[in-house]
Design a protein that fits this description.
single chain; Endonuclease III, domain 1; Arc Repressor Mutant, subunit A; two-stranded antiparallel ribbon; 16 helices; 5 strands; 55% helix; elongated
Length: 328
Amino acid sequence: MTTTERHATGSVAGRGAALAVAPRRPARRATQPADAGLHPDVAKLERRFVAAAARAARAEPPVAEFQAFVLAFYRRHGRQLPWRRTRNPYHILVAEIMLQQTQAPRVVQKYPAFLAAFPNLTTLAAAPLVDILRVWRGMGYNRRALALKRLAHAIVSQHAGRIPRSPAALASLPGIGAATAASFTAFAFNAPSVFLETNIRTVFIHYFFRRRRQVPDAALLPLVAAMLDHTNPRRWYNALMDLGAWLKAHGWNRNSTAAAHRPQPAFAGSTRELRGRILALLTDGRPHAAAAIARTLQAEPTRVAHCLAQLRNEGFLRRRRAAFVLAD
């Protein structure tokens, strides 16, 4: 689970149906090995897979060789992350939302404090937004903090505090789309879901679409389904994500060739930065007038007014006479 684009698309596939799907033309082209820095046993399996993929050409992809390589990589190079040491669905749900648009090392720092402050869905649902934002501060993309509170409230009120196991039921909840539902069920319930995120996309583009640009997710998803290890989907997706992170760290980031790729705009001076500064100021719990916010932040009053209107419409703020406070 990671980074600036946590989820792109997802579905749930049955074992037989997944393996029967083959990617569309043009033909896949396996890349050269990226074995520098890999354990020798892992590098050997990588080269074996690449050779098998080259022989396969337009035929069915070499599932067994790819799975052997990816799982060997995970055994030797897998990351130790706290949300992988729990089977608590709530803890995994918090990690899933945190990992949307935030890299894993940053989430590792904030995740324990969030769970300590809000140890279960009931606590989170009842918590004032100001308390949640105080703990969330530094994570960025504050919409996720508000989404988590709304999600917790919906699960408590509509599902008696039990997170649904059905992807369809999950996708009906606020802040949970089909892709997040698919990834969550894989990690929380070890379900054979099919989904993409940025690191998984990196792996499949690197090993199957190296010479193509604008690779659509529609071309990647059948391969994700075909390669899925149904014996342990949770372990499989952890392995894929870690391999993708490893490829990026070693200069093999292919996501710019994905059709879903969107360059991240500069943060400094952006509306997103100003929104974050406004919310951070309002976590003091006191009402602040728009003019006072602009003076304190040394920001253009028109930009501040625009951000305040956005934040109010999204449910972050409410008016108190001529001032603004965080919503309850």
